[in-house]
From TrEMBL:
Taxon lineage: Bacteria, Pseudomonadati, Pseudomonadota, Gammaproteobacteria, Lysobacterales
Signal peptide stretch: none
Coiled-coil zones: none
Full-sequence range covered: 482 to 770 of 770
Native source species: Arenimonas oryziterrae DSM 21050 = YC6267
Superkingdom of this protein's organism: Bacteria
Domain annotation EAL: ranges: 24-278
Protein name as it appears in the record: cyclic-guanylate-specific phosphodiesterase
């Protein structure tokens, strides 16, 4: 009996794995063609300073609409792009597109705005990121200090020695550096002190239950205090409610990003949002839920 059950379990497990790897192969096949087919686009999510309600910047977020598969989430395709190395050409496209967009917005007078661009660790380790970045800055005329590269905590910590060198090189160009999804990896405080970073972005996992879960409140408050004592700018991501906002303001968090302010928007809508934003107004665009 037990033996038969064991075999069944094994079979089901095996079939599930097969279905999953078939799906991954399908997605990967489409992903290989996506750049040439022009299936990528960027959306932009504003962030706001809590001190004065100013919009300080936006984060560029990649979207993929596949001809065969429809809309696929970055949570699904970014890991595949990283494993396959496709993130290298895709990452170059993101950098160029993001800086071209900021250039247009700057022509509309938004010269104080920064742009956050997500960078995969493979781009840090395998690509000519510093050279490419220098070229893009030259081509677009966007000042280096308006560009903030975001690297996830877990990725940096897995390769702390190597990434530190590249981050130092990027810093020399004049761009800012942010640690993304902070709190979900295992940062050694020694490295955190040593890394040439400007900003910590507290992962939305901790923000979602603020004012309901005392543990998440304690973690968030601690990260804010620690970030400030290291001289870092602290941003909370995934802020959805007024209560979360108040808590973060009380704790002295510097900036917030999340559906409370605005969901990610296409470049035209984001420009319109920023231009119509008055510090002190409530979020003008309702969250998508
Ligand atoms: P991330 O960099 O931490 O980006 C924040 C994610 O939170 C985005 O998901 C955003 O849409 C979502 N978000 C924003 N506000 C809220 C909120 O109030 N509530 C909730 N629940 N979620 C919110 P998205 O766009 O699906 O991106 C997921 C992840 O994919 C990003 O996490 C980033 O790690 C990666 N990613 C996105 N674009 C790129 C890219 O161009 N290059 C690389 N390497 N990774 C990217
Ligand atoms: Mg990010
Ligand atoms: Mg994040
Ligand atoms: Mg995240």
């Amino acid at each position: 009996q037990a033996k038969a059950e064991g075999r069944n379990t094994y079979q089901i497990y095996n079939e599930t794995m097969d279905a999953e790897s078939r799906r991954r192969a399908t997605v990967l096949a489409s992903l290989r063609k996506a750049l040439d087919r022009g299936e990528f686009r960027l959306v932009f999510q504003p962030r706001m300073a809590l001190a004065d309600g100013r919009i300080t910047g936006v984060e560029a977020l990649l979207r993929w609409h596949s001809a065969e598969l429809g809309e696929i989430s970055p949570v699904v395709f970014i890991p595949l792009a990283e494993e396959s190395g496709l993130i290298l050409p895709i990452g170059e496209w993101v950098l160029e597109e993001a800086c071209q967009t900021l250039k247009r917005w700057r022509n509309h007078g938004l010269t104080e705005l920064s742009i956050g661009i997500n960078v995969s660790v493979l781009q840090l380790l395998r690509s000519n990121l510093p050279e490419h970045l220098t070229q893009v800055i030259e081509d677009t005329g966007v000042p280096a200090n308006r560009i903030e590269l975001e690297v996830t905590e877990s990725m940096v910590m897995q390769n702390a020695e190597q990434t530190t060198n590249v981050l130092n090189e990027l810093r020399k160009i004049g761009v800012s550096l942010a640690i993304d999804d902070f709190g979900t990896g295992y940062s050694s405080l020694v490295y955190l002190k040593r890394l040439p970073i400007d900003t910590l972005k507290i992962d939305k996992e901790f923000i979602g239950d603020l004012t309901r879960d005392p543990d998440d409140e304690a973690i968030t408050a601690t990260v804010i205090t620690m970030g400030h004592s290291l001289g870092l700018n602290v941003i909370a991501e995934g802020v959805e409610t007024e209560q979360q906002l108040s808590y973060l303001r009380e704790q002295g968090c510097d900036e917030i990003q999340g559906f409370w302010l605005s969901p990610p928007l296409d470049s035209h809508r984001c420009l319109a949002f920023i231009r119509s934003w008055q510090p002190g107004t409530v979020a003008a665009i309702p969250a998508p839920y």
